[in-house]
From TrEMBL:
PANTHER family: CADHERIN-87A (PTHR24028), PROTOCADHERIN GAMMA SUBFAMILY C, 4 (PTHR24028:SF331). One of its GO terms (cellular component) is plasma membrane. This is Protocadherin gamma-C3. CDD domains: Cadherin_repeat. The gene is Pcdhgc5_1. InterPro entries: Cadherin-like_dom (IPR002126), Cadherin-like_sf (IPR015919), Cadherin_CS (IPR020894), Cadherin_N (IPR013164), Protocadherin/Cadherin-CA (IPR050174). GO terms for biological process: homophilic cell adhesion via plasma membrane adhesion molecules. SUPFAM superfamilies: Cadherin-like. Residues 5-104, 105-213, 214-321, 322-426, 427-538, 545-663 form the Cadherin domain. The keyword Calcium applies. Its main location: membrane. GO terms for molecular function: calcium ion binding. It is a single-pass type I membrane protein.
Length: 677
């Protein structure tokens, strides 16, 4: 805390102090720290030149307007700097200058005094008012020279001075009916200032006894906010005169201010003073009421007394919470101890009732730190997670120490700004896909899906395909597949062929849009399902040539001799490759048969002389697919005397003109031997 003192009424731009010098810091550092001036009042009376560190007057300062009759007048400032956040309290005392002379309410004062007025009688004169304070305010009065009156200055408890004329020598109306006096009010400034009022005293005859109060002053104590009509005090004055001259009426003196007259009222008959307005301890702690008692004589005589009313404070003002600095957005990675807001609290009550305590709910990750009297900082007390709680409503409760206490609640809404602290997560650790071969190009095989609890750019996901570790380097998944960048749909770029590839494995990587980006992977297994897209292929006898394959048998061949065997394979698998052999056409359907699964062609009965010498057989090889595919082969069996005996296991020879390949001959020989065994 730094304190300066300046006189009031300085010109704009006047020097107040050098904050950089008084804080012992470099001016450049203050400028870089974003120095700010925060005032407790509504007007900005001061400004700071951040280039020089000098505090200057920016508006006219009138001490009387700011602080009235308070003996000391202060303006409070707070300097705030950033990186790190620090606050400095500056107290500027405004010193009074003698810029106001004392002034009487009127230049002329008229008094009517009975000639029988007692020596020592006092006659109050309306005092002069000087808004200055200290030595610059009203200090003394001077009365012009005269034979009958002296001047007495009555000092009040609040420091006010009231002049009274004191009768020192008896009046004689017949000798002198009017007295003209001059009363001068002078302050203690240098040089002093003064003003005058002219007093005209008319000496009256008759009623020679004035009312007398039973005590010179009265005292009372009331609590603020007392109900209207509350009795303050009952005055008692007596007059020894008789008749109208002894009949007393009470009234509030004209010396009382208009504001005081609105608060208190007096019954002119009983002398009871009662409350008729609002009593507020925060506006005034003591009221001094001037009361006069007049008799009904002609002319009337009066007496004055004062009633001092002390006001006791009650807890009728709730604390106030003022936001000095506040940021409604906070990064979720803010460290514990980060300053979120700076608040100023105040309570207009006094004593314990004006002391304020602040707190926040204990279940929130925030805490209050008391910087100094009436100022708190709201700090984070734990790590924050936007994905867990994205928004906080922090209730700051301010309570005074009154009985019962009064409180005020202020709600601060704080939104957490997202940081990229969560990697995307797939819905499944791995995916398995069954895809039929010969699939259409562009068909969607599978959709992988991931989620990221972050928000906005940090939750925008993109997908890509990567080769899985340990797979064939030549089997690049991007050759067959593509993935949509944002939807995660995996599509086929080429149709699959089960006969070439039965299984494909690859990784899908997802990355978010944060900086740096966070990534995750999932494994996708693609199983190719076989389709019946390959017809059986006849390896023996050769199919698709210009002439049918011929076989020779002897007329004596007996059943069930093996003539030959049709050998076929199917590139498909499963039922699609399960072959069956069927004799569709034959010269003599009852002479030969074909084994359903092995494809062996056998003679079913003995040859007769009436049988043809050449038999043409049409054999169809069919798979078990849906729909089934088939291949046909034509064989010609020649019956000749010199033909081999198939029943004895001799090789059936084909005469297809071109001869059989060596491997085919080996296969035929092997099949014949196996069948014979």
């Amino acid at each position: 805390q730094i304190r300066y003192s300046i006189p009031e009424e300085l010109t704009r731009g006047a020097f107040v102090g050098n904050i950089a010098k008084d804080l012992g810091t470099d001016v450049a550092k203050l400028a870089a720290a974003n120095l700010q001036v925060l005032s407790d009042s509504d007007s900005q009376y001061f400004s700071v030149n951040v280039n020089t560190g000098v505090i200057m007057v920016s508006e006219r300062i009138d001490r009387e307007q700011l602080c009235g009759q308070n003996p000391r007048c202060f303006l409070h400032l707070k300097l705030a700097i950033e990186n790190p956040v620090e606050f400095y309290r500056i107290e500027v005392e405004i010193l009074d200058i003698n810029d106001n002379p004392p002034e009487f309410p009127s230049d002329e004062v008229s008094l009517r005094i009975y000639e029988l007025a007692s020596l020592g009688a006092r006659f109050p004169i309306q005092p002069a008012q000087d808004p200055d304070v200290g030595t610059n305010t009203l200090q003394t009065y001077h009365l012009s020279a005269n034979e009958n009156f002296n001047l007495n200055v009555k000092a009040r408890t609040d420091g006010g001075k009231f002049p009274e004329l004191v009768l020192e020598r008896a009046l004689d109306r017949e000798l002198r009916a009017f007295h003209h006096l001059v009363l001068t009010a002078e302050d203690g400034g240098s040089p002093p200032q003064s003003s005058k009022t002219h007093i005209t005293i008319q000496v009256l005859d008759a009623n020679d006894n004035h009312p007398v109060f039973d005590r010179p002053s009265y005292g009372a104590r009331l609590v603020e906010n007392s109900p209207l009509g509350t009795l303050v005090v009952k005055l008692n004055a007596t007059d020894v005169d008789e008749g109208p001259n002894g009949d007393i009426r009470y009234s509030l003196s004209s010396h009382n201010s208009a504001a005081l007259r609105q608060i208190f009222a007096i019954d002119e008959q009983t002398g009871e003073i009662r409350v008729q307005g609002n009593l507020d301890f925060e506006e005034a702690t003591v009221y001094e009421i001037e009361v006069e008692a007049k008799d009904m004589g002609s002319p009337t005589m009066e007496e004055h007394c004062s009633v001092v009313v002390e006001i006791t404070d009650v807890n009728d003002n709730a604390p106030e919470v003022i936001l000095t600095s506040f940021s409604s957005s906070l990064s979720e990675d803010a460290l514990p101890g980060t300053v979120v807001a700076v608040i100023h609290v105040r309570d207009r009550d006094s004593g314990e009732q004006g002391k304020v305590q602040c707190h926040v709910p204990p279940d929130l990750p925030f805490q209050l730190r008391k910087d100094y009297e009436h100022q708190y900082s709201l700090l984070t007390s734990a790590r924050l997670d936007r994905e867990h709680v994205a928004y906080y409503n922090v209730t700051i409760s301010a309570s005074d120490l009154g009985n019962p206490p009064l409180s005020h609640h202020t709600i601060l809404s704080i939104a957490l700004a997202d940081v990229n602290d969560n990697a995307p997560q797939f819905e499944q650790a791995s995916y398995e896909v069954m895809v039929a071969e010969n699939n259409p190009v562009g068909s969607v095989l599978v959709t992988v899906s991931a989620a990221d609890p972050d928000s906005e750019q940090n939750s925008r996901l993109s997908y890509s395909i990567l080769r899985a570790a340990g797979t064939d380097p030549g089997l690049d998944p991007t050759r067959y597949l593509s993935i949509h960048l944002t939807s995660g749909q995996v599509s086929a770029k080429l149709p699959f062929d089960y006969e070439q590839t039965t299984y494909l494995q690859f990784h899908v990587e997802v990355s978010d849009g944060g900086s740096p980006a966070l990534r995750n992977r999932t494994l996708v297994h693609v199983f190719i399902v076989d389709q019946n897209d390959n017809a059986p292929q006849v390896h023996f006898p050769r199919a698709g040539e210009e002439s049918a394959t011929q076989f020779r048998i002897s007329p004596s061949t007996a059943p069930p001799a093996l003539i030959t065997k049709v050998m076929a394979i199917d590139a498909d698998s499963g039922l699609n490759a399960w072959l069956s052999y069927h004799l569709v056409e034959a010269t003599d359907p009852g002479l030969f048969s074909v084994a359903l699964r092995s494809g062996e062609i056998r003679i079913t009965r003995a040859l007769q002389e009436t049988d043809a010498s050449a038999h043409e057989l049409l054999v169809v090889v069919r798979d078990a697919g849906e729909p089934p595919l088939s291949t046909a082969v034509t064989l010609v069996v020649l019956v000749e005397e010199k033909g081999p005996e198939a029943l004895q296991g001799s090789e059936a020879r084909a005469t297809d003109g071109g001869g059989l390949p060596t491997i085919t001959l080996y296969l035929i020989v092997s099949l014949v031997l196996i069948s014979t065994v």
